[in-house]
Amino acid sequence: MELTYPLVVGVGLPLAAVIAYAVYRRLVAHGRGARAAVANSSGLTRLPEYQRALRGHRLRMAVLAGSGTLLMVAALVGAARPLDATVQTPQTRSRDIVLCLDISGSMASFDAELVATFRTLVKSFEGERIGMVIFNSSAATVFPLTDDYEFINGELDTAARALSGDPDLESFFAGTFNGRGTSLIGDGLATCVAGFDRIDTRRARSVVFATDNHLAGRPIVSLDEAGELAKLRGVRVYGLNPEQEGHDLEAAELQSVVEGTAGAYYRMEDTKAVRGIVDAVQAQEATVIDAASRSLHADSPALPIAAAGIALAGVIGASRRWSS
Questions:
Q1: Which Pfam families does this chain map to (predicted)?
Q2: In what order do the strands lie in the sheet with 2-3?
Q3: 86 closest CA partner among 310, 308, 298, 252
């Protein structure tokens, strides 16, 4: 138990002791002055009834003094505000997810729908940190990993409006046209994989990778190399292809790469795609992480209140018997 105001006890106890001693000396001096000699009183004081009454009186006085002292100490401790202090190290279970969206020309007719799919995914998560990256000839972070779901949904609303052609949101695409060519798939995936915290490698990490894999340019990192980078960093990639008709070599390549990271491949029209991604992400064990330790303080008045109650009962009981 700790005291919020220990000075109350440190000053109060010596002061109370001084006051009690002064009162005692005054009572003793007054008692000496009030004495009167009574002849032949020794026979009275030897009577058994007198001895019993004297013992009872002394006992009541002792109880009264002890109860008064306890009441005073309890009052001082209560005024000092006792606290229970505990050190808590909370644990969190979390996963990190990066939503990775190809915004090249071949994806223009699908992007708004894919953002709606992302919003559906977000609604299925609770406590996971989520980030979003868009890419064309280069990649740009829309928002970094965060568990502020109100902020995430607001950013996805903005993305949906921008990808639906809102002229007031052309700045949304800033930073995605700095490379050579368009739709540099490998560069986009590599950027998304690199978007995770590099220090905290203990979290389960996933990328939801929405692309048709229609490469149009010379990327710095190929799709296969980006897949190897994901495996090296323990990132699972879940591919979401909005455009696949029959046997598609580009789709087959994308499927091979994402499945090589222990992820999964889905076509967007697959009604089980969203549920499959959610289940696959949640099937990964959420890593237990110790957060920073913190001290918790809670008022703990039970002991001084209980002591004061007992002391008050003793004072009242002893005083009533004494006055009788």
A1: VWA
A2: 2-3, 82-88, 294-299
A3: 298
Q: pLDDT, tens digit, for every residue of 100-152?
A: 999 988 888 888 888 988 888 888 887 788 999 999 989 999 999 988 999 99
Helix 111-123 / helix 273-283 crossing angle, nearest 10 deg: 40
Annotated domain spans of the chain: 2-32+42-86+295-323, 91-290
| Tokens at 241, concatenated | 């292809």
Class for domain 91-290, per CATH?
A: alpha beta
Identify whether the C-beta of residue 115 lies closer than 8 Å to the C-beta of residue 269.
no
- 139 vs 186: CA distance, rounded Å: 11
Q: CB count, 10 Å around CB of 207?
A: 27
Helix axes 302-323, 48-79, angle to 10 degrees: 150
> What residue type is 254 in one-letter code?
L
Are the CB atoms for 208 and 118 separated by under 8 Å?
Answer: yes
CA-CA distance, 301 to 303, in Å (whole number)?
6
